[in-house]
Amino acid sequence: MESVFRALAHDSRRQLLDRLYARRGQTLGELATGLPVSRQAVAKHLAILETANLVATHWRGREKLHYLNPVPIADIVRRWVGKFEETRLDALADFKEEIENHKEIRHA
Amino acid sequence: MPERAPDHVYVIYIAARPDAVWNGLFDRDMTKAYWAHYNLSDWTPGSRWEHVRSDESGTVDILGTVEDIDPPRRLVISWAFPHDAQDEAKVSRVTFELTPLGPDARLTVIHSDLEPGSDMEKGVSDGWPAVLSNLKTLLETGRPLSSDKWTSDSDEASPESDAFKG
């Protein structure tokens, strides 16, 4: 579990997870495109995420595809939040997102 | 044409032998506890399998065909809502792979050929992480983490029980 928190404690790695959440099954090259860090740095971050089991990989021929693996996060949620609370938190997160988006629109 | 990339690849490490994890995919009492369903089939290639609700209703929520089975290493099944089972575009595929790692097992679940934007795609994206996390907890502590933990009168499973699994 420590490796999960360590892996999450870096903005670039959180951004990589965001990218994999938005589109699953990307290669290193696709993930590195448009990021302000080198391909080597992205590879290193991905290795840390893979070690923490937050990223799962699948070989398609010679292509290594990367997937967000939220299972360790589900473990954390279940440890401290539980099943019913999880649903309620989802509702709260949706509500927060909604009011924040609303605020953005007002300020725009 | 290259193989289509899977839609989801989930990996979970479980402190149990592969055959125990394998049994966990089929054992009716266990799947009831972490999946709220049981999986009904004779488990031979080509046979139909059904994902049946564990309540009294006997409702089949998912069904498909056993495409490949190699106990306790690999299981490939097709996967669809009953009303979509004849529509090839709406039939997806789930592969379970078990790898022994010393006393532990790595379970990989690959879900492929999901129809983009479908209810099934959304449902499984929400569902698999919780199901797999609960399977792990059940196999490692003997009981699932869910609402029924609050009615349990014993609390011997320490929060540190997974500390040795790194």
In short:
The complex is a heterodimer of chains A (108) and B (166). By secondary structure, chain A is mainly alpha-helical.
Oligomer: heterodimer
The CATH superfamily of the largest domain in chain A appears as Winged helix-like DNA-binding domain superfamily/Winged helix DNA-binding domain
Q: Strand order across the biggest sheet of chain A?
A: 1-2
Structural class determined from secondary elements of chain B: alpha+beta
Strand content of chain A: 5-15%
Tally of DSSP β-strands of chain A: 2
Number of strands of chain B: 7
- Number of helical regions of chain A: 6
Low-confidence stretches of chain B: 147-166
What's the tally of helices of chain B?
A: 3
Secondary-structure blueprint of this entry?
The complex is a heterodimer of chains A (108) and B (166).
Chain A (H helix, E strand, L loop, with lengths): L1 H7 L2 H12 L5 H5 L6 H13 L3 E6 L2 E6 L2 H10 L2 H25 L1
Antiparallel strand pairs in A: 1-2
Helix pairs in contact in A: 1-4
Chain B lengths: L7 E7 L3 H9 L1 H8 L1 E4 L7 E6 L6 E11 L3 E6 L12 E10 L2 E9 L6 H23 L25
Antiparallel strand pairs in B: 1-7, 2-3, 3-4, 4-5, 5-6, 6-7
Helix pairs in contact in B: 2-3
